[in-house]
Amino acid sequence: MRYIRYAFLAALAVVLICVALANRGLVTLQLLPADVSALLGFQETISLPLFLVIFGGIAAGLLIGFIWEWLREHKHRAEAARRQSEVKQLQRELRRVKGERDKDKDEVLALLDQAS
Known about the structure:
Blueprint (H helix, E strand, L loop, with lengths): L1 H21 L3 E5 L3 H7 L4 E5 H23 L1 H28 L5 H9 L1
Antiparallel strand pairs: 1-2
Keywords: Cell membrane, Coiled coil, Membrane, Transmembrane, Transmembrane helix
InterPro entries: LapA_dom (IPR010445)
Pfam families: LapA_dom
């Protein structure tokens, strides 16, 4: 299974390198549209190779997706934590009740009851 993972990662690396080599041309990115930047007097541009723009877009999309999913699943994690604390509280109560029940028993019989 490890070799399959390494083969997949190697193939992915080759594909990404091919995409990067095929898209080396410079593109100009603007922060705002031309009309809006002229109105505000704030014109910020940067020239980058196209493959950096593509990979940056993929990375930003993955990051936004991970954060979105983490926020969406918050209610499930909170419910699981609440149930876990409830289970711990019930286990403590069960040990207390068993201790009260076994208080007057012979020690050997109490140990046998606890083991089962």
